[in-house]
Amino acid sequence: MKHVLMELPYEQSALEPYISAETVSYHYGKHHAGYVNKLNSLIEGTEYADKPLDYIIKYANNSIFNNAAQVYNHDFYWKGLSKTATSPSVKLLGLVERDFGSIKAFEETFLTAAAGFFGSGWIWLIITGEGKLEIKMTSNADTPLRHGDTPLLTCDVWEHAYYIDYRNGRPDYLANWRKLINWNFISDNLAKVENDPIAGYNQSCNEINQVCDYVDYMQKNETTPS
Ligand SMILES: [Fe+2]
Predict the structure, then answer these.
(1) Alpha carbons 34 and 217: distance in angstroms, whole number
(2) Are the C-beta atoms of residues 164 and 20 closer than 8 Å to each other?
(3) 53, 109, 171, 213: least CB-packed within 10 angstroms?
(4) What is the Å distance from ligand 1's center to 194 Cα?
(5) Ligand 1: distance of its center to the CA of 121 in Å?
(6) What integer pLDDT is reported at residue 1 of this predicted model?
(7) Measuring CA to CA, how many Å separate 216 from each of 134, 190, 221, 224?
(8) How far is the CA of 205 from the centre of ligand 1 (A)?
């Protein structure tokens, strides 16, 4: 199967002034697109030619793995950004407060890890099989999918993600990346992971009373973090 470059969920200028259209143009249009094209050319005639991305990430090695993982990682990165205000679901907020103390403490821990990470790679918020939120770092193209962890959010700390706008100033990039975190995306990922009725907690409840009660409870207690 031919892998296709994802459509960005916004205009290339939508993340300005924090991430410029020029950066998005190079990062998405050259780097991300390059991984997709390279992957398609590498898998031609191999056992991976007809396999979906997650299968390739799980089983392939070397260049095929690197390019497949970079396609996945970049898909995840773009979806995790939003210039529009977003907020965590009640469920996510509860987990963040339990595992990090607060949204602010989580962001600071995440950004400290990202700023101190050596070399090129990715910083992730993942949820473990036991339901615990953790921050993980992966080098180069490596990705939590390969290790059985479920990602909820990622930040690209390859220099190509910020060099045009910030030169070598990774902390400046991170301080502005923080303003673009798409909490709706993280919340949706969490809901999918848990296969939980709160996946639709802000929609109509169904005929199962227990779900209706839960939806009522969640809606009543929903708050937006300061
Ligand atoms: Fe990148």
Answers:
(1) 47
(2) yes
(3) 213
(4) 28
(5) 8
(6) 86
(7) 29, 20, 9, 17
(8) 40
pTM comes to 0.86
Q: What is the DSSP code string of 122-177?
A: EEEEEE-TTS-EEEEEEETT--GGGGT-EEEEEEE-SGGGTHHHHTT-HHHHHHHH
Ion ligand 1, residue ranges at CB < 5 A:
156, 158, 161
* CA 122 / ligand 1 centre spacing (Å): 9
Assess whether the previous peptide bond of 197 is cis (omega < 30° from 0).
no
Instruction: Please give the distance, rounded to the nearest whole angstrom, from the Cα atom of residue 57 to the centre of ligand 1.
Output: 17
Cα 106 to averaged position of ligand 1 atoms, centre (Å): 23
Tens digits of residue pLDDT in 15-64: 999 999 999 999 999 999 999 999 999 999 999 999 999 999 999 999 99
Domains of the chain (ranges; CATH) run 21-79 (1.10.287.990), 90-196 (3.55.40.20), 197-226 (no CATH)
Indicate whether 115 pLDDT > 90: yes
CA of 211 to the centre of ligand 1 (A): 40
